[in-house]
């Protein structure tokens, strides 16, 4: 499916490259860098809940294929800290009278996304500048950023028998995303532009629900991490700058 | 002694030479042009003038009153708009002459003279006015109406008085006070306020008359001229002179105007004193002003008694130039009857003037075009005074096909001796209309001519028959005689009917005397073929839609709109002249932002050049704000193209008129190597967002979006309009007319984007591979 899409994209660009498209002062290919960020509220296990900012960087490439349409591709990358609660055995009862404590912890992950997108420029704007509506489809995945992110489970089968197992996300999320952006590219001089946009993403793939019949540490962790990914990347505000290549 | 005589002879000879030169000049008259270096008034930015005025006004005070500040800002920008419109003349014969008269008037006041600048405006409206900045304008029409130099001297003295007393400023400030109901005007009704404003303005006029008269008495000029000028102003709506109009020059040996079109007698000119109600007018009525001037004349002692000092010949020469210029201005203002009558009047002395013949042709063409499309081109002839009424009556009463044929024949004759682009274009256009609107073909004309010849023959035969009958000198009281007389009267009645019918179709004989000419035959046949070809194309276009339902038609139209939006146009034009780029900024609170607009306008011109470079479009920029001292030729060019476009825009688009200045525009086209002239500009407007309350209310109800709602509610709405009008002066058509509305701030980037796109559409050829940078 994706392969077909990429081929179609390549063919359409090669056809359209010879037609009469004005672009911005004759320039149709843009390269850009965007900072993609979003403020969201996270409900932690212990009150108070907090507001957090997610961040990822984006490198984008766009090509005006007609007066009103530009096609392009983006690569997102960044480090995000995904929340995970950890239950630990306590030797003394806590306030609730239970021998368990819940501890918050963040697992640093590296996120990688790539998409192909098409931009439709609003009435009276000429691609590749002005107000646009962007529709994208892409792939996404994450993996542990470093060893510190590993979730270590301590198993107690008796006081003399304590062992530990590493159950950090064993199956990193791999899935698809569909996105929509409403944005504006504003040229600055002949060669540069400023880009601002707001968008939403929808993800498909990966386990996001805790399977009650399989309450393994790994299963819970996996589901939580995948939910985190959706939470961090559901919406985004992008601010960036770009360069008109030719 | 010999030296003196030889000098006198030389002087006389040079005068003869000047006259000969003038006479020749009027045969091939060329419209007035500016010459010499451009004056500083045209070169200084309006904002610089305004700031200088504010500094001068401030003096020792810390600040300038707001109304005064507004006045200085507005007047500086408005006057500069006029100065850079191309309508104002400098360094030309008429302006130089006016300046020389001003020198005479101000000979004893060199300090005041140094502060004043005098310019002429090309206009068919007789007027003169002074500005607070020390510029005095006189229109060419006013110079064409006055009788002598002394009258011009009084007009200038009157305007100098306005300047000295700062009447424009005081009038503006007082109008503001009255409009705002300040001070003593607080309790006045609206009606009373208008009357008070008029009364104040009239007092200033009286003061200017009085001071102007005093200045005239101190000069070398005859004071009585002041009284005469006010008479001239009363009759300024009349032509320069009142001469009998005889349309014989529009007839041919076989083509004559029927009697009912020629008025036997004309309405006399109303010479009664002008006592019209002037309580709502800015100027007092003429009889009141004349009465005052009369009192001044009776009580004053004039130091001079001259009507001419600069020179009588110079005056009449300048007056004639202005009259020739006036005809052109009347054509541009669609005042065709006046233009034709004035041209006729001037042709009485300048019989061979091609210029006047051209003006007549253009006036006839204009009238025919307007009449063919059911539009009105002038006042009703019943309302016209004087001998010009005959001219108005003729063109009021004549039918559309007749007017078309009269115009066609006149232009045809002119094209034989002066075949210019415009005469040819007018001829082709009218011939097409004669065929398509009135079904006049070569055949109908030939048939009519044949009928005419038959009727002529029958008339001759009947007359000769009656001659033979006249042998019966005695009348027999017999049955035969009664029958014979009955038959004769029937024949005569038939002939009379034929003659009336022929009267109504007299216009078909307009070309009767040259119908056998192969060129005439070809001309009409070509016109018919062109119309048939055009109709075929049109019917082919409309046939596409004939079998479609309304929904399908709408769908096709939408498809075409989308196609245009996606692909744009490909006009394939390589070279364009960009004329007077404009940039206007405004907002809903302070209105026009004149200073910002001017600053942006300068940047805008640079943007045009840059984008043209990127688009590979060859352009020449006629940007008056960027003119330098040596750019007089560019200013003259600007005037020509502004006149052409101004007239084009004034006509109803349905007419598809060829503007009267087309030949001059074609000269420019040759000079700039393109027939395409483009007007472009930006209008940027900022306004407060509507329904702020509702937006805030919704945001409060849906509280997570409150910060966004507040930002949105208090962010103003920006509208940026970018327009482009591209004309082809050779066809008289608008090639491109686009207005792009962007709901963003007028940032240069967005304007660049749209401007480049427009230039790209202008330059790109259909199915051409992209070559632009």
Strand segment tally of chain B: 10
Computed Rg of chain A: 23 Å
Spell out the helices and strands of chain A N to C: HEEEEEEEEEHE
Total helices of chain A: the number is 2
Which percent band covers the strand fraction of chain B? Answer: 5-15%
Q: Give the end-to-end Cα distance of chain B, rounded to a whole number of Å.
A: 78 Å
Give the largest chain-chain interface (CB within 8 Å): A-B, 24 and 30 residues
What structural category do the secondary elements of chain B indicate? alpha/beta
Biggest sheet statistics of chain A: 8 strands, antiparallel, barrel
Q: Given the structure, what is the number of helices of chain B?
A: 28
Oligomer state of the chains in this structure: heterodimer
Sheet with most strands of chain B = 6 strands, mixed
Low-pLDDT stretches of chain B: 1-21, 466-481, 768-773
- Which structural class do you get from the secondary structure elements of chain A? mainly beta
Query: How many β-strand stretches of chain A?
Result: 10
Shape of chain B: globular
Q: How much is the average pLDDT of chain B?
A: 86
Helix content of chain B: 55-70%
Average pLDDT confidence of chain A is 79
Folded structure, characterized:
- The complex is a heterodimer of chains A (246) and B (773).
- The model of chain A has no long low-confidence stretch (mean pLDDT 79).
- With 246 residues, chain A is mainly beta.
- Chain A has helices spanning 2-16, 217-233, and strands spanning 29-42, 50-64, 69-89, 100-121, 130-144, 152-156, 162-166, 174-188, 192-204, 235-244.
- Chain A is elongated and about 80 Å long.
- With 773 residues, chain B is an alpha/beta fold.
- Chain B contains 28 helices and 10 strands.
- In chain B, the strands form 2 sheets. In chain B, strands 5, 6, 7, 8, 9 and 10 form a 6-stranded mixed beta sheet that branches. Chain B has a 4-stranded mixed beta sheet with strand order 1-2-4-3.
- In chain B, a hairpin with a 4-residue loop joins strand 3 (128-130) and strand 4.
- The N and C termini of chain B lie far apart (78 Å).
- Classes of the chains: A mainly beta (246), B alpha/beta (773).
- Chain A binds chain B through residues 18-22, 24-26, 66-68, 124-126, 129-131, 184, 186-190, 193, and chain B through 565-568, 570, 610-611, 614-615, 740-742, 744, 747-750, 752-754, 756-757, 760-761, 764, 768-770, 772-773.
């Amino acid at each position: 499916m994706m392969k077909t899409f990429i081929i179609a994209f390549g063919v359409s660009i090669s056809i359209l490259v010879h037609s009469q498209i004005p672009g911005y002062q004759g320039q149709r290919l843009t390269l850009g860098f965007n900072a993609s960020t979003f403020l969201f509220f996270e409900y932690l296990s212990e009150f108070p809940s907090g507001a957090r900012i997610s961040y990822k960087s984006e490198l984008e490439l766009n090509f005006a294929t007609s007066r009103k349409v530009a096609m392009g591709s983006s690569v997102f990358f960044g480090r995000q800290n995904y929340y995970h609660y950890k239950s630990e055995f306590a030797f003394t009862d806590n306030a609730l009278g239970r021998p368990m404590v819940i501890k918050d912890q963040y697992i640093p992950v590296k996120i990688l996304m790539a998409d192909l997108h098409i931009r439709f420029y609003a009435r009276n704007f000429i691609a590749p500048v002005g107000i646009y509506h962007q529709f994208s489809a892409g792939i996404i995945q994450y993996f542990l950023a470093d060893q510190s992110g590993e979730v270590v489970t301590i198993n107690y089968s008796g006081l003399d028998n304590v062992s530990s197992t590493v159950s950090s996300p064993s199956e990193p999320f791999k899935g698809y995303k569909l996105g929509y952006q409403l944005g504006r590219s504003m040229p600055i001089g002949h060669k540069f532009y400023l880009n601002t946009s707001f968008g939403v993403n929808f993800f498909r793939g990966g386990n996001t629900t805790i399977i009650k019949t399989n309450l393994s540490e790994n299963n819970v962790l996996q589901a939580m991490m995948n939910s985190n990914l959706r939470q961090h990347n559901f919406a985004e505000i992008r601010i960036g700058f770009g360069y008109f290549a030719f | 002694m010999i030296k003196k005589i030889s000098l006198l002879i030389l002087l006389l000879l040079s005068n003869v030479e000047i006259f000969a030169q003038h006479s020749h000049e009027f045969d091939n008259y060329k419209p007035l042009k500016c010459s010499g270096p451009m004056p500083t008034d045209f070169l200084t930015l309006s904002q610089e003038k305004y700031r200088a005025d504010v500094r001068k006004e401030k003096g020792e005070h810390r600040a300038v009153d707001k109304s005064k500040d507004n006045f200085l800002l507005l007047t500086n920008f408005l006057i500069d708009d006029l100065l850079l419109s191309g309508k104002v003349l400098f360094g030309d014969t008429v302006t130089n002459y006016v300046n020389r008269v001003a020198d005479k008037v101000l000979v004893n006041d060199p300090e005041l003279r140094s502060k004043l600048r005098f310019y002429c405006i090309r206009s068919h409206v007789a007027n003169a006015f002074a500005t607070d900045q020390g510029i005095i304008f006189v229109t060419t029409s006013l110079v064409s109406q006055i009788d002598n130099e002394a009258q011009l001297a009084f007009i200038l003295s009157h305007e100098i008085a306005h300047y000295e007393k700062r009447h424009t400023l005081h009038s503006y400030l007082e109008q503001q006070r009255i409009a705002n109901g300040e001070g003593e005007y607080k309790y006045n009704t609206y009606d009373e306020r208008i009357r008070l404003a008029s009364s104040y303005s009239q007092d200033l006029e009286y003061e200017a008359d009085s001071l102007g008269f005093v200045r005239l008495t101190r000069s070398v000029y005859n004071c009585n001229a002041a009284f005469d000028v006010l008479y001239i102003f009363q009759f300024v709506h009349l032509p320069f002179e009142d001469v009998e109009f005889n349309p014989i020059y529009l007839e041919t040996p076989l083509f004559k105007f029927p009697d009912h079109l020629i008025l036997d007698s004309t309405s006399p000119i109303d010479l009664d004193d002008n006592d019209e109600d002037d309580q709502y007018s800015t100027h007092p009525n003429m009889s009141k002003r004349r009465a005052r001037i009369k009192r001044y004349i009776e009580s004053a002692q004039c130091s001079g008694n001259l009507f001419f000092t600069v020179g009588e010949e110079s005056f009449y020469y300048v007056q004639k130039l202005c009259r020739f210029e006036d005809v052109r201005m009347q054509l541009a203002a669609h005042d065709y009857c006046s233009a034709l009558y004035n041209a006729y009047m001037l042709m009485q002395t300048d019989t061979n003037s091609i210029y006047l013949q051209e003006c007549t042709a253009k006036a006839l063409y204009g009238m025919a075009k307007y009449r063919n499309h059911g539009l009105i081109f002038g006042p009703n002839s019943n309302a016209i005074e004087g001998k010009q009424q005959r001219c108005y009556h003729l063109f009021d009463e004549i039918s559309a096909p007749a007017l078309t044929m009269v115009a066609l024949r006149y232009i045809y004759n002119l094209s034989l001796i002066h075949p210019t682009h415009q005469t040819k274009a007018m001829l082709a256009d009218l011939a097409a209309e004669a065929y398509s609107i009135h079904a006049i073909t070569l055949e109908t004309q030939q048939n009519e001519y044949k009928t005419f010849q038959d009727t002529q023959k029958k008339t001759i035969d009947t007359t000769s028959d009656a001659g033979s009958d006249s042998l019966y000198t005695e009348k027999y009281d017999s049955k035969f005689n009664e029958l014979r007389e009955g038959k004769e009267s029937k024949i005569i009645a038939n002939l009379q009917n034929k003659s009336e019918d022929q009267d109504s179709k007299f216009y078909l004989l307009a070309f009767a005397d040259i119908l056998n000419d192969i060129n005439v035959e070809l001309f009409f046949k070509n016109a018919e073929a062109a119309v048939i070809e055009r109709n075929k194309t049109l019917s082919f276009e409309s046939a596409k839609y004939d079998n479609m339902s309304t929904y399908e038609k709408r769908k096709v139209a939408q498809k075409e709109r989308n196609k245009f939006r996606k692909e744009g146009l490909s006009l394939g034009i390589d070279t364009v002249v960009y004329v007077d780029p404009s940039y206007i900024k405004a907002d809903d609170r302070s209105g026009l932002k004149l200073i910002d607009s001017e600053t942006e306008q300068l940047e805008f011109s640079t943007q045009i050049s840059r984008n043209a470079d990127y688009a590979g479009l060859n352009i020449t920029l006629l940007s008056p704000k960027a003119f330098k001292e040596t750019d007089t030729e560019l200013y003259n060019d600007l005037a020509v193209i502004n006149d052409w476009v101004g007239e084009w825009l004034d006509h109803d688009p349905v007419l598809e008129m060829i503007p009267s200045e087309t030949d001059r525009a074609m000269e420019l086209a040759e000079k700039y190597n393109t027939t395409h002239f483009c007007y472009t500009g930006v209008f940027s407007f900022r306004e407060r967002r509507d329904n702020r309350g509702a937006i805030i209310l919704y945001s409060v109800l849906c509280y997570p979006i409150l910060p966004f709602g507040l930002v949105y509610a208090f962010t103003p709405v920006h509208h940026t309009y970018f327009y482009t009008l591209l004309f082809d002066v050779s066809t008289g058509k608008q090639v491109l007319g686009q207005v792009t509305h962007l709901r963003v701030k007028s940032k240069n980037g967005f304007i660049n984007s749209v401007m480049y796109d427009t230039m790209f559409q202008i330059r790109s050829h259909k199915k051409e591979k992209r070559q632009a940078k």
